[in-house]
Every structure is written in structure tokens, then in C-alpha cells.
Amino acid sequence: MNGKSRQKRMAVINDFSGFGRCSLTVALPIISAMKIQCCAVPTAVFSNHTGYEDFFMQDYTDYMPVYFDKWEKLGLTFDGIYTGYLGSVRQVELVKDFIHRFGTENTRIIVDPVMGDGGKIYSAFGRALCEEIRELLPLADIITPNVTEACILAGQPYRDDIRTETELLSLCDTLRRLGAKDIVITGIAAGSDIGNFVYHKNGSYSLMTHEAARSVPRAGTGDVFASVIASDAVNGAELSASVEKAAAFVADAVQISDDFGVPPQDGICFEEILSRLM
Ligand code: PXL
């Protein structure tokens, strides 16, 4: 024992993609490595994520209510609830219901509003779904949109050159008006650097930049990043320190993936450095 009276527990509502290193298949190992019991709620099962030309998908929406009922019967509550890829308006409604049923006043809620990247919305996402995801903002303690997702949520056109503190601050102000508290905007292209903008609910902010790994954009980096942030939040870490750690972890995993010559859609080889999170 390391002074803790009990182990922490986090529910993760996200899809299961068998290949491509994203969503639950990265959240599970990362959250476990960070010493939290990871309780998975699959929103869908994919053979591989939608970034590949072809994939098989089995939607899980209809099974989620009964899954929740069984968990309620077990009397479960969670120290963290972390949401990722939600494939339908109904699923977002189910997430709201889940938070009300299983959250307590001490539960940390982390919403990664997975919708798109690089200015493009993922193939399964339409306007109605994006608008519904916006309704999760007031329920979340921390949100981790990339620039594309932050623009969709804020209802403003995407630009790939959003990088000044003034522009990022204005984006966060809009998200705050929509109910967001702590915000981390990820994947900001800042010259040869990559940045994350951290906006705290007390109004303080900082643009944290890191030397970019020499890679093209890779699948699942946002999921790895958000899994570290969510685990740190449950473990009580300070947000800026957590962003620093998550960014360094992603950058090193990207570098290793480049060195291995892994195709960008196959995600990042975080397994090589997972032990660093322990
Ligand atoms: O990494 C985001 C993500 C999660 N889940 C599925 C995806 C994607 C991005 O393409 O397709 C199924």
C-alpha cells in the first residue's frame, strides 16, 4: 500500500476498436498502468477504427441501458467517468443518464469530445450528433478537444492556423459560455512545435509548446493523451503538470512509431513506454 485507503475506479465510455490503437484499447492499459481500475462501457465494437478504408462495426446502443441496470444493481459508483467516441445522439443521452446515476459529488468527469481532426469531421458524425455532444460540456470537469473539435463545439469555422493566445482564449471563452470548466485544447500547430492550450476554470491559462516529433498526424494520439489526463485527474494531479506529462508521453510514442515505420493509421506504439506511467 502507498498510503491510499482504497484503489480508485474509473468508468470509460468509448468504443472498442480491435485494431488501430484507439479508444478502449488504449484507455484500458494506460488507466490500469496509472493504478486505477478501468471499468469499460463499449459504445460499439469495430474491427478497426474508421480511419481505415473499410471496417466492421456493431453498434452497442441498445445494450447500454441494460448494462447500466446491472451495474446499478451492483451498487457501483466511480471516482472518474471518462467519455470518448459516442456514435449517436441516443448514446450521448445515455451518457448523461450514466453520469447522473453513477457520478457522486467527488467524481471527476472527463469528456473527450471525439468528433474529428485536421479540420475534418469523422465519417460517422453529423451536425445533430455534434450538437448533442456540446450538451456534455456543462457536465464535465475537464474537456480535451483538439482544435477541430473545439471549433465544432464553439460553432466557428475551423482554421489550421489558430495558434495565438488571443485566438485560443477567445475559443475557450466561448466553450466556457457553453458550460465547460477546465479545458485542454490539444494538437495546436505552432511552427515546428506542437502546443496544448490549458485553460483553468479560475481564468488562468497557458500555451504549452513542445518540440514536435517528426511525424505525420497519427491515429489515436488524442485518446492516449486524454487517457493520461483522465487518470491523472482521478489521481488528484495538477492539470498543467498532467498536460506536460501526457504531451511528452505522446511525443515519445510518436517518435518510436516513426522509428519502427508504423503506418500513421495504426496509431502510436505507446506499449514500448507504458511502464513509464507506472
Ligand atoms: O481516435 C478516435 C476514434 C475513436 N474511435 C473510432 C474512430 C476514431 C477516429 O477515427 O474511428 C471508431
| Number of separate helices | 8
Compounds present? 3-hydroxy-5-(hydroxymethyl)-2-methylisonicotinaldehyde
Helix/strand-derived category reads alpha/beta
Write the CATH homologous superfamily.
Ribokinase
Total E-strand runs: 11
List keywords for this structure.
23% strand, 8 helices, globular, nine-stranded mixed beta sheet, single chain, binds 3-hydroxy-5-(hydroxymethyl)-2-methylisonicotinaldehyde, 36% helix, 278 residues, UDP-N-acetylmuramoyl-L-alanine:D-glutamate ligase, alpha/beta, two-stranded antiparallel ribbon
What features would you describe in this structure?
The protein has eight helices and eleven strands. Strand 1 (8-19), helix 1 (24-33) and strand 2 (36-48) form a beta-alpha-beta unit. Helix 1 runs parallel beside helix 7 (221-234) and helix 5 packs across helix 6. The chain has a nine-stranded mixed beta sheet with strand order 3-2-1-4-5-8-9-10-11, sandwiched between helices. The chain is α/β, with parallel strands linked by helices and 278 residues long. The protein has one domain (9-270): UDP-N-acetylmuramoyl-L-alanine:D-glutamate ligase (3-Layer(aba) Sandwich), CATH 3.40.1190.20. It has helices spanning 24-33, 64-73, 89-102, 127-134, 147-154, 165-177, 221-234, 239-260, and strands at 8-19, 36-48, 57-59, 80-83, 108-111, 116-117, 120-121, 142-143, 182-190, 193-199, 205-211. The protein is globular, with a radius of gyration of 17 Å. 3-hydroxy-5-(hydroxymethyl)-2-methylisonicotinaldehyde (PXL) binds next to strand 1 and helix 7.
